[in-house]
Amino acid sequence: MTHPLRLGIAGLGTVGTGLVKLVQTNADLIAARAGRPVEIVAVCARSRTRNRGVDISAYAWEDDPVALARRDDVDVVVELMGGENGPAKALTEAAIDAGKDVVSANKALLALYGQALAEAAEAKGVALRFEAAVAGGIPVIKSLMEGLAGNRITRIKGVMNGTCNYILTRMEDAGLPYDTVFEEANQLGFLEADPTLDVGGIDAAHKLALLAAIGFGVQPNFDAIELGGIEKISIEDIRAAADLGLRIKLLGVAQMTGRGLEQSMTPCLVPSDSPLGQLKGGTNMVVIEGDAVEQIVLRGPGAGEGPTASAVMGDVIDIARGLRLPVFGQPANSLAQAVAARATASKPFYLRMGLIDKPGALAKVAEALGLAGVSINRMRQYGHADTRAPVLVITHKTTRDAIEHAVALSLKTGVVVGEPVALAIEED
Amino acid sequence: MTHPLRLGIAGLGTVGTGLVKLVQTNADLIAARAGRPVEIVAVCARSRTRNRGVDISAYAWEDDPVALARRDDVDVVVELMGGENGPAKALTEAAIDAGKDVVSANKALLALYGQALAEAAEAKGVALRFEAAVAGGIPVIKSLMEGLAGNRITRIKGVMNGTCNYILTRMEDAGLPYDTVFEEANQLGFLEADPTLDVGGIDAAHKLALLAAIGFGVQPNFDAIELGGIEKISIEDIRAAADLGLRIKLLGVAQMTGRGLEQSMTPCLVPSDSPLGQLKGGTNMVVIEGDAVEQIVLRGPGAGEGPTASAVMGDVIDIARGLRLPVFGQPANSLAQAVAARATASKPFYLRMGLIDKPGALAKVAEALGLAGVSINRMRQYGHADTRAPVLVITHKTTRDAIEHAVALSLKTGVVVGEPVALAIEED
Question: pLDDT (tens digit, 9 = 90+) per residue, A260-290?
C-alpha cells in the first residue's frame, strides 16, 4: 500500500492552514509512519486569494465544498469549515455518499447530527473521524475509544473550552469583574462570532456529547446535557471560592448513575490544588474513569493552529494506516438512546445569597434549607458595606433538585436580595 | 469478522489475573467494541493450583509457555510473565514464529531485544503490541505512536517508576531518610525482587527506551541512556530542594538536540508547583512535546492489576479490530541507531557539597566552579552543628560535562568533605 493518500481540505482558516503547513513540513516523517505519502490534492475556502502564509498553488481549487467532496482524486475529505449546518453538513454528507473517508473538526455538526452521519458512514463503509473536535491537541478520543476500550467507563469530566477557562482564570488572577474580562477576551479574538457558544457552555457541551457517546455507548445527544454558562459568575463568587480552597471551572461531567447517564456542562467548584483546579488559561483537561484503569488525566492545548492540526493529522494517518472503526467505537445502530436525565448524583453544593441586614434573616434561610432537606456543612457571613449581607453556604452532599427546592424556599422568606448562586462542588 | 479472538495468556500474577477478570467481567462490552467476542482459551503459569480469586477451570492449561505459544487454537499470545530473558523471550519468539499476534507487558524484554523481535514480527506480518509495558494504565504508546503521529517529537519527559516516586514523596512528606523509606516500600511489596531495577532507574529506563524508539524513530537502545538511581538522594537534598521551591523526581528525558538524541533517566529537580512536581506516590506522568501539538501531559496509575490489565486489553481490542502497525510505529528496518550521546543540552544544575569549616573554603569552591566555566546563580550556606558546612549552589544553564569538571576541580581543592551531589534542574 504505497500509493499516496490524497486529501481534499475544506476550510483554510487557522486549522486548515495549520494542516497544510504540517503536511508540507513533516512530509517525510508522515510517509514513514503512515507507510505511504500523504498529499493534498484539492482545497476549498471562502477566499482564494487571502494570504495565509502557505503556498497552496500546487493544489486544485474548488469554490464549492460539495464539488470538492466528489472529486475522483480525493481519498479523504477533511472538513475544517465549522458550523453546525449549511455547507459543512452538505459537504460531509456528500463525501460519505461519494464513498470518501472523512476527517472532521466540527464538534457542533457531530454533536447534533453525529448519529445520522455515523449510520451513513457505516452503511457506506467509510471512516468518519473527529479527534480535533474535542480538546484540541489532546488525543482524548483515541484514548477513550481505543486505549481504554476494555473498560466500563464510569465517569468523564473535563474542562473543554479554553475561552471560558481563560476568562475565569483571568478574573481570579487580576481581580477583575466578568464583563471586563469578557471584553478583553473579545479584543484578543478568543471568542466565537456568537460568544454564547463559548460562555454559554454550548461549544463545550458539544464536545461532552461526543465523549459521552464513545464512553457510554449512547447516541450523541446534545439536548440531554444540563447546560449552564459562566455569564453569572461574579468576582464575588471567585473570591469566596478561593477563600474555601476552591476554584470555579466550566466543567463537563458525564457519569453513569443508578438512574442512567447524567451529563452536565455547568460552572462547578473544584479543589484549587487538584489537577482541574490548577488548570490555567486556554489549556484543556479531560479526566476519564473506568472500572479497570481507575483514573487517567489528559492535559494539553485546547485550540490553536498547531495542536488542532496535530489532531487532524493523527486521524489522517490512522486512515492511511488502514484503521477502520465504527464512528463512536461500536456500531451506530447499537448505540443506546441518551435521555435527558435529571441529575440525581449526590454532591456538595456552594450557595451564595445576599440577605437583608435584619435580625433573624440568617435563621430564616437556614430553616428553608432544612425544610428542603439540605444539610449545612459550613456557613459564612461576610462583613459588608451596604445593606446586603453576603452569606455563603457549603452543603453536605445533596441533589440539584433539593438545592433548587432550597433556593425556592429561601426566596419565599423575603429576606434574600438578588439572585442566589448555586454551584455543584466536584471534589474528587 | 464475528469469530472470536482467542487469547493464550502466559503469566497469572497480578496483571494476568487482572486480565482474566476483565475479559470475564466486561465480555459483552468488549465484544460490542471489538466487533467480535474476545475469549481466553489457554493459560500458563508457574502454579496451576494457586488461588487467584478467578475461575480458570474453563481454560486449557499449559505447563510450558512455548507450547502455549504454538497452540492452534490461540490467535493472540499475551506475555505477562516478565523477565528480560529466559521463558518470556522464548515464548515471544515462538509466538511470532508460529504467526501469532503478541501482546506484551514486558518492558525489559522489549527494551533489550525489541529491535530483533520487531524485525521478526514484521517479517511474519504479526502484531507485537506493548502498551502495558510503559506507564501502566496510561495510553501513552497509543497517544505517541498514533494520536501524535503527525508531529516531529522534540522531547519526551516522564516519571515512570511508581516505586521511586513513592519513596521520594514519602521521604519528603514524613521527613524520613532514604534507608527507612526503602525498607517501608520493601515491606509493602512495592519493590521488584531485585530492587536495583526500581531504585537504580533501570525499569524506568527500559520504558524510556521504548518511548524514545517510537517518538524519535530509533531502535530501542537501553545502553544509550544515561542512568542514575535514587539511592544517593538524601533527606538533606529533599529539604534543600523544597527550600528552593523544587522537588526531586526520578525523571526520564529523551530529547533531540543539535548533536542527536539524548536520553537520560536520572534524579532531577522540577518546580514543586509544576505537574511533574505535584505528582505523588505511585502515579506516573508522561509529557510529550511535538512541533505541532506543543505539549501534552498524560497522568495515571503506573501499575496495579486493573490499570495494567486495561492497557493489555486495549492492545487486544486493537488486534480484534484489525489494527496493524509496525511495532515501533514505522518499519523496524527503517529505524535509526540511537547512539549513547553525551548530554549537551544546557540546563541549570543543583550542586550540594559539604565544606570543611575553615576561612576561604567557600571561595576555593567558587573559584573551582569558575575555572570549569560554571556560573553561579544562587548559593546558600546552611547553619551546621558539626564541622561540615553544607553549601548549596544553583548554577546558570550549563552542561553535565561542565558540572562534572567543576565537581572534580572542587574535590581537588581539599576543602570538600564527602561526595558532592549534582542534579539537573528541569524547569519547563
Answer: 899 999 999 999 989 999 998 889 999 999 9
Q: Which residues of chain A lie closer than 8 angstroms to B297, CB-CB?
A: 297-300
For residue A343, what pLDDT is reported?
Answer: 67
A315: nearest CA partner in chain B: B147
Q: B283 to each of A67, A81, B156, B178, B302, how far by Cα in Å?
A: 51, 40, 17, 19, 5
Say how far apart CA B202 and CA B226 lie, in whole Å: 10
Q: Quick check: A342 pLDDT over 70?
A: no
> What pLDDT sits at residue B3?
92
CATH code, residues B143-301:
3.30.360.10
Contacts of residue B310 in chain A, CB cutoff 8 Å? 148, 150-151, 290, 292-293
A140-302: CATH number: 3.30.360.10
Mean pLDDT rounded to a whole number for chain B: 94
Top mean pLDDT of A43-52, A373-382, B245-254 is at B245-254
Instruction: Give dist(CA A135, CA A283) in Å, integer.
Output: 9
Cα A253 from Cα A286, distance rounded (Å): 10
Query: Are the beta carbons of A29 and B217 separated by less than 8 Å?
Result: yes
A150:B321 CB<8 A: no
Cα distance from N-terminal residue to C-terminal residue, chain A: 47
Whether the pLDDT of residue A359 is over 90: the answer is no
Distance CA B214, CA B208 (A): 10
ipTM of the complex: 0.95
Minimal CA separation from A137 to chain B, in Å: 6
Going from N- to C-terminal start, the domains of chain B cover 5-133, 143-301, 349-425
Q: Is B207 a catalytic residue?
A: yes
pLDDT of residue A84: 87
Cα dihedral B41→B44→B49→B51 (10° resolution): -80
pLDDT tier for residue B338 given thresholds of 50, 70 and 90: confident
Fold type of domain A349-425: Alpha-Beta Plaits (3.30.70)
What residues of A are labeled active site?
A: 207
Instruction: Output the CA angle B240-B244-B247, nearest 5 degrees.
Output: 75
